Amino acid sequence: MEQTFAIIKPDAFSAGHTGKIIDRLIQEGFRIVGMKKLWMSPDEAGGFYYVHKERPFFGDLCEFMSSGPCIAMVLERENAILGWRELMGATNPADAAEGTLRKEFGTELSRNATHGSDAPETAAFEIGYFFSGLELRS
């Protein structure tokens, strides 16, 4: 089994899509190993997205991610990283395939409903950023 990290972002949370997204996760065979609602500060969002700190969109991203509550999750299943990324769809909802979460719930590139780890190393960092080992016992 592989684990990955996922976020239901503030735009999807405030629009009331959390339950629908979680239902889709379960339908796709993901097991939710850890889940919490949180509201990041701009500094916490900056620490999470530190890999983008030199990018021009970094400030806007941190502002958006700290604009309201979100749901952080640790997901588990075979090929969880790839499976979650396929379920999310392309980063830009306009480019996302029909049936993906970003196509259904995202509204624009910077408001795309979900986040997911892109590699095992990223997943390890992201899971550790938000969850302690005690929170992830099965």
How would you describe this protein?
The two termini are 13 Å apart. The chain has one domain (2-39, 69-136): Alpha-Beta Plaits. The chain contains 7 helices and 4 strands. Helix content is 40%, strand content 19%. It has 138 residues and is of the alpha+beta class. The protein has a 4-stranded antiparallel sheet with strand order 2-3-1-4, sandwiched between helices.
Which helices and strands, and how do they pair?
Blueprint lengths: L1 E7 L1 H5 L3 H10 L3 E8 L3 H7 L9 H8 L4 E8 L2 H9 L12 H5 L8 E3 L3 H11 L8
Antiparallel strand pairs: 1-3, 1-4, 2-3
Helix pairs in contact: 3-4
Keywords:
138 residues, Alpha-Beta Plaits, four-stranded antiparallel beta sheet, 7 helices
Described by the principal axes of the CA atoms, the overall outline is globular
Radius of gyration: 14 Å
In the sheet with the most strands, the strands line up as 2-3-1-4
Query: What's the mean pLDDT score?
Result: 94
Number of strands: 4
Give the CA-CA distance, first to last residue. 13 Å
Give the CATH level 1 class. Alpha Beta
Number of helices: 7
Give me the CATH fold name: Alpha-Beta Plaits
User: What count of structural domains?
Assistant: 1
